[in-house]
């Protein structure tokens, strides 16, 4: 049974194994915009806006309805009439009107002639769709920013793993040197043990780094809506900052402000729709129908059996004039105006926040640029110090502590350089976002 289970798991692994896919940043962004649930829901909101527009438009179109009913009256209502009508002066006689069975079929046509609320809704419908389109654009930008951040974090994890591997090779070389010296009686056993401990720690750190790479890759796959089982690879990139993106700021291109502006426009339409309650409304109504009465069911019987059918029709105009509703409309208008003023405050606050984000992105970009130059110099210096210390240690002019310290310093310098490069790439993304140019990441890799 155990062999059978192992065979099954092995063949299952072969079944679900997939060839690794190499992902450029632009490809990852495009994949996310096509497969991510948030992007799809934003597109569905636009489709829903079309349905809402059709619903509003329907209020201005003719409305036709039909109805039919059959009623049985086991007891007919009686009315009291003077006896003179029946040749019995001075007496009151109870007379039942109608028939036990009544059937009717009716068709009604109604058409709005004037309704300010309907006309305002038609004008606001276009703005509603534009609002959802801007919201979808903002959603796409948020997805692009998230994907780009996750994408560069994968590179950071991979670079951290490479740094550990490099440091691991150095420590293994040091261990061989110490071991040789110890065998020849030129080093103490404690030196060998300390070096072995340092090596074991690096092996443990390597496993943690491997896990970090896998976690970052899984996070990226989740961000773009890709199956977690799909293997991915990222192409080699040179993270040297070759340029500073343009530092021009055009607030008119920011989707966040355009969305808030469209929201204020919708709130103004809502206020106009509320004001429309002060206007009278008029509609045209037309009816045509058939009425059947008799003591038998007036569906199959004719006049010869006491069932009578007659048609009827009417055409009219309904006019409604609002006079007084206790100030309810005035209160709603005030509420609408307050919402508009709140939206204006949000607009100003968001504009200030975007200006702050822009300034911070430029400062972070410039600082990261300088930090990268400094850390590159530190890596070069740390490498030179390590080579000198190794030679001195072999000649007995440096201690093991010196050797291990310079190895740690080199590893730290490499990690600092990796972090600075990531900070630079993230600052690039932040700057593009503050400029409203995140869409360029769909076409080009920075």
TrEMBL record:
Coiled coil as UniProt keyword: yes
Claim: Ribosomal protein is one of the keywords in the record: no
Coiled coil: 32-59, 333-430
Keywords noted in UniProt: Cell outer membrane, Coiled coil, Membrane, Signal, Transmembrane, Transmembrane beta strand, Transport
Signal peptide region: 1-17
Localisation: Cell outer membrane
Main localization (coarse): membrane
Record family assignment: Belongs to the outer membrane factor (OMF) (TC 1.B.17) family.
Protein name: TolC family protein
The species this protein was found in: Autumnicola patrickiae
């Amino acid at each position: 049974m155990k062999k059978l289970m192992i065979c099954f798991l092995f063949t299952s692994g072969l079944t679900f194994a997939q060839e690794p896919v190499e992902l450029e940043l632009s490809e990852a962004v495009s994949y996310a915009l096509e497969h991510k649930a948030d992007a799809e829901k934003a597109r569905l909101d636009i489709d829903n806006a079309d349905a809402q527009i059709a619903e509003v438009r329907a209020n201005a179109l003719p409305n036709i309805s039909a109805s039919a009913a059959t009623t049985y009256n086991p007891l007919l209502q009686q009315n009291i009439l003077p006896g003179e009508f029946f040749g019995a002066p001075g007496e009151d006689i109870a007379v039942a009107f109608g028939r036990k069975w009544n059937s009717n079929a009716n068709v009604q046509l109604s058409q709005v002639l004037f309704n300010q609320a309907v006309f305002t809704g038609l004008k606001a419908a276009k703005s509603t769709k534009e609002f959802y389109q801007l919201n979808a654009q903002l959603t796409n930008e948020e997805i692009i920013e998230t994907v780009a951040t996750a994408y560069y974090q994968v590179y950071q994890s991979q670079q951290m793993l490479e740094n550990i591997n490099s440091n691991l090779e150095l420590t293994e070389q040091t261990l061989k040197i110490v071991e040789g010296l110890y065998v020849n009686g030129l080093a103490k056993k404690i030196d060998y043990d300390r070096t072995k401990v340092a090596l074991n720690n690096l092996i443990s750190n390597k496993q943690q780094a491997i896990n970090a790479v896998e976690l970052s890759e899984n996070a990226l796959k989740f961000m773009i809506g890709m199956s977690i089982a799909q293997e991915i690879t990222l192409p080699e990139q040179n993270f040297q900052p070759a340029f500073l993106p343009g530092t021009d700021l055009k607030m008119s291109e920011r989707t966040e402000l355009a969305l808030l502006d469209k929201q204020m426009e919708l709130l103004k339409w809502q206020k106009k729709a509320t004001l429309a309650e002060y206007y009278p409304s008029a509609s045209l109504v037309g009816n045509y129908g058939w009425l059947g009465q008799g003591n038998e069911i007036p569906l199959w019987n004719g006049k010869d059996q006491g069932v009578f059918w007659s048609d009827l029709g009417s055409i009219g105009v309904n006019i409604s004039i609002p006079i007084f509703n206790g100030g309810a409309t005035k209160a709603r208008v005030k509420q609408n105006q307050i919402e508009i003023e709140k939206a204006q405050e949000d607009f100003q606050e968001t504009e200030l926040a975007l200006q702050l984000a822009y300034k911070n992105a430029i400062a972070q970009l410039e600082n990261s640029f300088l930090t990268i130059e400094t850390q590159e110099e530190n890596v070069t210096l740390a490498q030179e110090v390590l080579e000198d210390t190794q030679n001195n240690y072999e000649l007995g002019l440096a201690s093991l502590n010196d050797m291990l310290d310079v190895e740690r310093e080199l590893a730290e310098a490499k990690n600092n350089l990796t972090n600075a490069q990531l900070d630079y790439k993230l600052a690039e993304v932040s700057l593009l976002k503050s400029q409203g140019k995140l869409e360029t990441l769909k076409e080009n890799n920075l």
